[in-house]
UniProtKB/TrEMBL annotation:
GO terms for molecular function: ATP binding. SUPFAM superfamilies: P-loop containing nucleoside triphosphate hydrolases. Residues 34-215 form the IstB-like ATP-binding domain. This is DNA replication protein DnaC. GO terms for biological process: DNA replication. InterPro entries: IstB_ATP-bd, P-loop_NTPase. It holds the Pfam family IstB_IS21.
Length: 253
Protein backbone atom coordinates (compact mmCIF):
# COMPACT_ATOMS: atom_id res chain seq x y z
CA UNK A 1 0.00 0.00 0.00
CA UNK A 2 1.26 3.47 -0.91
CA UNK A 3 2.36 5.59 2.04
CA UNK A 4 0.42 8.83 2.38
CA UNK A 5 2.41 12.06 2.28
CA UNK A 6 1.74 15.78 2.62
CA UNK A 7 3.23 16.08 -0.86
CA UNK A 8 -0.14 14.80 -2.10
CA UNK A 9 -2.72 17.61 -1.98
CA UNK A 10 -5.53 15.12 -1.33
CA UNK A 11 -3.41 12.92 0.99
CA UNK A 12 -4.04 9.69 -0.88
CA UNK A 13 -0.56 8.94 -2.23
CA UNK A 14 3.11 9.61 -1.48
CA UNK A 15 3.23 12.56 -3.86
CA UNK A 16 4.13 10.48 -6.91
CA UNK A 17 0.62 10.69 -8.33
CA UNK A 18 0.12 6.94 -8.05
CA UNK A 19 -1.84 4.94 -5.49
CA UNK A 20 -0.34 1.48 -5.08
CA UNK A 21 -2.34 -1.35 -3.50
CA UNK A 22 -1.64 -5.04 -3.07
CA UNK A 23 -4.57 -7.33 -3.73
CA UNK A 24 -4.12 -11.08 -3.31
CA UNK A 25 -0.39 -10.70 -3.77
CA UNK A 26 -0.81 -8.63 -6.94
CA UNK A 27 0.48 -5.07 -6.93
CA UNK A 28 -1.83 -2.60 -8.68
CA UNK A 29 -1.15 1.11 -9.30
CA UNK A 30 -3.72 3.62 -10.41
CA UNK A 31 -3.73 7.41 -10.76
CA UNK A 32 -4.28 9.53 -7.68
CA UNK A 33 -6.80 12.42 -7.88
CA UNK A 34 -3.92 14.78 -7.05
CA UNK A 35 -2.68 14.35 -10.62
CA UNK A 36 -5.65 16.25 -12.01
CA UNK A 37 -5.29 18.95 -9.37
CA UNK A 38 -1.59 19.34 -10.18
CA UNK A 39 -2.45 19.59 -13.87
CA UNK A 40 -4.97 22.35 -13.11
CA UNK A 41 -2.43 24.22 -10.98
CA UNK A 42 0.09 24.03 -13.82
CA UNK A 43 -2.53 25.44 -16.17
CA UNK A 44 -3.22 28.28 -13.75
CA UNK A 45 0.51 29.02 -13.59
CA UNK A 46 0.80 28.85 -17.38
CA UNK A 47 -2.19 31.18 -17.64
CA UNK A 48 -0.25 33.70 -15.52
CA UNK A 49 -3.15 34.11 -13.10
CA UNK A 50 -2.08 36.51 -10.31
CA UNK A 51 -1.26 34.47 -7.21
CA UNK A 52 -3.72 36.35 -5.02
CA UNK A 53 -6.54 35.50 -7.43
CA UNK A 54 -5.82 31.85 -8.23
CA UNK A 55 -8.45 30.74 -5.70
CA UNK A 56 -11.03 33.36 -6.72
CA UNK A 57 -14.36 31.83 -7.71
CA UNK A 58 -17.45 33.24 -9.35
CA UNK A 59 -19.67 32.04 -6.51
CA UNK A 60 -17.58 33.85 -3.91
CA UNK A 61 -17.92 37.21 -5.70
CA UNK A 62 -19.68 39.47 -3.17
CA UNK A 63 -22.27 41.89 -4.51
CA UNK A 64 -23.42 42.79 -0.99
CA UNK A 65 -20.13 44.61 -0.31
CA UNK A 66 -21.14 47.61 -2.44
CA UNK A 67 -22.80 50.54 -0.67
CA UNK A 68 -25.05 52.03 -3.33
CA UNK A 69 -28.22 50.10 -4.16
CA UNK A 70 -27.78 50.46 -7.92
CA UNK A 71 -24.20 49.18 -7.65
CA UNK A 72 -25.38 46.19 -5.61
CA UNK A 73 -27.87 45.44 -8.39
CA UNK A 74 -25.21 45.80 -11.11
CA UNK A 75 -22.85 43.48 -9.24
CA UNK A 76 -25.63 40.96 -8.66
CA UNK A 77 -26.48 40.91 -12.37
CA UNK A 78 -22.78 40.63 -13.28
CA UNK A 79 -22.31 37.67 -10.92
CA UNK A 80 -25.43 35.93 -12.28
CA UNK A 81 -24.23 36.42 -15.86
CA UNK A 82 -20.76 35.12 -14.96
CA UNK A 83 -22.26 31.98 -13.44
CA UNK A 84 -24.41 31.38 -16.53
CA UNK A 85 -21.44 32.04 -18.79
CA UNK A 86 -19.40 29.33 -17.05
CA UNK A 87 -22.32 26.89 -16.99
CA UNK A 88 -23.00 27.43 -20.70
CA UNK A 89 -19.41 27.87 -21.83
CA UNK A 90 -19.76 25.39 -24.68
CA UNK A 91 -22.59 27.42 -26.20
CA UNK A 92 -20.68 30.71 -25.83
CA UNK A 93 -17.59 29.04 -27.26
CA UNK A 94 -19.50 27.78 -30.28
CA UNK A 95 -20.74 31.33 -30.89
CA UNK A 96 -17.29 32.82 -30.21
CA UNK A 97 -18.82 35.22 -27.70
CA UNK A 98 -16.78 36.47 -24.75
CA UNK A 99 -17.42 39.22 -22.17
CA UNK A 100 -16.51 42.90 -21.96
CA UNK A 101 -16.58 44.08 -18.32
CA UNK A 102 -16.50 47.85 -18.08
CA UNK A 103 -16.75 50.59 -15.50
CA UNK A 104 -15.03 53.95 -15.10
CA UNK A 105 -14.15 53.47 -11.43
CA UNK A 106 -10.94 51.59 -10.59
CA UNK A 107 -11.14 48.84 -7.99
CA UNK A 108 -14.77 48.03 -8.74
CA UNK A 109 -14.23 44.27 -9.10
CA UNK A 110 -13.74 43.92 -12.86
CA UNK A 111 -10.44 42.06 -12.59
CA UNK A 112 -11.66 39.94 -9.67
CA UNK A 113 -14.76 38.72 -11.50
CA UNK A 114 -13.08 38.23 -14.87
CA UNK A 115 -10.26 36.16 -13.35
CA UNK A 116 -12.83 34.11 -11.44
CA UNK A 117 -14.43 33.23 -14.77
CA UNK A 118 -11.08 32.24 -16.26
CA UNK A 119 -10.26 30.14 -13.19
CA UNK A 120 -13.57 28.30 -13.54
CA UNK A 121 -13.08 27.62 -17.25
CA UNK A 122 -9.60 26.20 -16.64
CA UNK A 123 -10.75 24.00 -13.76
CA UNK A 124 -14.07 22.83 -15.19
CA UNK A 125 -13.35 22.63 -18.92
CA UNK A 126 -9.59 22.11 -18.89
CA UNK A 127 -9.09 24.97 -21.37
CA UNK A 128 -5.80 26.70 -22.00
CA UNK A 129 -6.02 30.30 -20.87
CA UNK A 130 -3.97 33.45 -20.46
CA UNK A 131 -4.34 36.49 -18.23
CA UNK A 132 -2.43 39.57 -19.35
CA UNK A 133 -2.83 43.33 -19.07
CA UNK A 134 -2.97 45.36 -22.26
CA UNK A 135 0.25 47.14 -21.23
CA UNK A 136 2.15 43.90 -20.63
CA UNK A 137 0.87 42.44 -23.88
CA UNK A 138 2.35 45.31 -25.86
CA UNK A 139 5.56 45.28 -23.80
CA UNK A 140 6.09 41.56 -24.42
CA UNK A 141 5.81 42.13 -28.15
CA UNK A 142 8.13 45.14 -28.01
CA UNK A 143 10.71 43.08 -26.10
CA UNK A 144 10.99 40.69 -29.04
CA UNK A 145 12.54 43.53 -31.06
CA UNK A 146 15.73 43.41 -28.96
CA UNK A 147 18.70 41.32 -30.06
CA UNK A 148 18.79 39.46 -26.74
CA UNK A 149 15.18 38.22 -27.08
CA UNK A 150 14.64 34.45 -27.30
CA UNK A 151 11.26 34.81 -28.98
CA UNK A 152 9.83 36.70 -31.93
CA UNK A 153 6.75 38.82 -32.42
CA UNK A 154 5.17 36.32 -34.83
CA UNK A 155 5.21 33.57 -32.18
CA UNK A 156 3.68 35.87 -29.57
CA UNK A 157 0.98 37.18 -31.87
CA UNK A 158 0.17 33.61 -32.85
CA UNK A 159 -0.10 32.59 -29.19
CA UNK A 160 -2.25 35.58 -28.22
CA UNK A 161 -4.49 34.86 -31.19
CA UNK A 162 -4.87 31.14 -30.66
CA UNK A 163 -4.99 30.51 -26.89
CA UNK A 164 -8.43 29.11 -26.06
CA UNK A 165 -9.42 31.83 -23.58
CA UNK A 166 -7.64 35.18 -23.49
CA UNK A 167 -8.27 37.66 -20.68
CA UNK A 168 -7.05 41.17 -21.50
CA UNK A 169 -7.13 43.29 -18.35
CA UNK A 170 -7.28 47.10 -18.27
CA UNK A 171 -7.69 47.64 -21.99
CA UNK A 172 -7.32 51.34 -22.71
CA UNK A 173 -4.78 52.31 -20.04
CA UNK A 174 -1.91 51.77 -22.49
CA UNK A 175 -0.56 54.58 -24.64
CA UNK A 176 -2.36 54.25 -27.96
CA UNK A 177 -0.45 54.58 -31.23
CA UNK A 178 -1.02 53.37 -34.77
CA UNK A 179 1.29 50.45 -33.96
CA UNK A 180 -0.49 49.41 -30.75
CA UNK A 181 -3.89 49.70 -32.42
CA UNK A 182 -2.69 47.52 -35.27
CA UNK A 183 -1.39 44.91 -32.80
CA UNK A 184 -4.73 44.71 -31.00
CA UNK A 185 -6.55 44.58 -34.34
CA UNK A 186 -4.43 41.63 -35.50
CA UNK A 187 -4.99 39.69 -32.27
CA UNK A 188 -8.71 40.41 -32.13
CA UNK A 189 -9.12 39.62 -35.81
CA UNK A 190 -7.50 36.21 -35.42
CA UNK A 191 -9.60 35.40 -32.38
CA UNK A 192 -12.84 36.64 -33.93
CA UNK A 193 -12.34 34.65 -37.12
CA UNK A 194 -11.57 31.44 -35.20
CA UNK A 195 -14.31 32.09 -32.59
CA UNK A 196 -11.91 32.07 -29.65
CA UNK A 197 -13.28 33.32 -26.33
CA UNK A 198 -11.93 36.71 -25.28
CA UNK A 199 -12.67 38.35 -21.92
CA UNK A 200 -11.80 42.03 -21.59
CA UNK A 201 -11.92 44.51 -18.71
CA UNK A 202 -11.75 48.24 -19.28
CA UNK A 203 -12.53 51.63 -17.79
CA UNK A 204 -14.00 52.56 -21.19
CA UNK A 205 -17.58 51.70 -22.08
CA UNK A 206 -17.88 49.45 -25.12
CA UNK A 207 -19.69 52.19 -27.04
CA UNK A 208 -16.87 54.66 -26.42
CA UNK A 209 -13.94 52.57 -27.66
CA UNK A 210 -13.68 54.55 -30.90
CA UNK A 211 -12.77 57.65 -28.88
CA UNK A 212 -9.63 55.78 -27.75
CA UNK A 213 -8.91 53.69 -30.83
CA UNK A 214 -9.48 56.22 -33.59
CA UNK A 215 -9.30 53.85 -36.55
CA UNK A 216 -12.47 52.15 -35.34
CA UNK A 217 -11.32 48.60 -35.99
CA UNK A 218 -10.68 47.65 -32.35
CA UNK A 219 -14.10 48.77 -31.14
CA UNK A 220 -16.03 47.12 -33.96
CA UNK A 221 -14.34 43.78 -33.36
CA UNK A 222 -14.87 43.88 -29.61
CA UNK A 223 -18.55 44.72 -30.10
CA UNK A 224 -18.92 41.67 -32.34
CA UNK A 225 -17.00 39.16 -30.21
CA UNK A 226 -18.05 40.08 -26.66
CA UNK A 227 -21.16 40.65 -24.58
CA UNK A 228 -21.06 44.01 -22.72
CA UNK A 229 -21.33 43.66 -18.94
CA UNK A 230 -21.45 46.95 -16.98
CA UNK A 231 -19.80 46.78 -13.57
CA UNK A 232 -20.55 48.90 -10.46
CA UNK A 233 -19.26 52.45 -10.47
CA UNK A 234 -17.88 52.08 -6.95
CA UNK A 235 -14.49 51.03 -5.64
CA UNK A 236 -14.40 48.25 -3.05
CA UNK A 237 -10.64 47.69 -3.13
CA UNK A 238 -9.95 49.66 0.06
CA UNK A 239 -12.86 48.04 1.84
CA UNK A 240 -11.61 44.55 0.97
CA UNK A 241 -8.06 45.44 2.03
CA UNK A 242 -9.28 46.72 5.41
CA UNK A 243 -11.31 43.55 5.92
CA UNK A 244 -8.32 41.37 5.07
CA UNK A 245 -6.18 43.30 7.56
CA UNK A 246 -8.84 42.92 10.22
CA UNK A 247 -8.94 39.16 9.67
CA UNK A 248 -5.16 38.99 10.09
CA UNK A 249 -5.34 40.99 13.34
CA UNK A 250 -8.12 38.76 14.70
CA UNK A 251 -6.23 35.60 13.75
CA UNK A 252 -2.80 36.45 15.10
CA UNK A 253 -3.40 39.08 17.76
Amino acid sequence: MTAVSDKCVVRKCDGSGLIVVVNDGETIAYPCPCREQKKQLRKLDTAKIPLDLQDATVNSFEYEIYDEADNVQKAKIAKHFAIKFVENYCDFSEAGKGIYLSGEIKGSGKTRLSVSILNALIREYNVSGLYITSVNMLNEIKNTFTESSNSNSYELLKYFGEVEVLLIDDLGVEKVSDWSEEIFTQILDTRMNSKKITIITSNIGIGNLDSKYKNGRVGSRIEKMTFPLPMPEESVRTKLSLRDNEQIINKFF
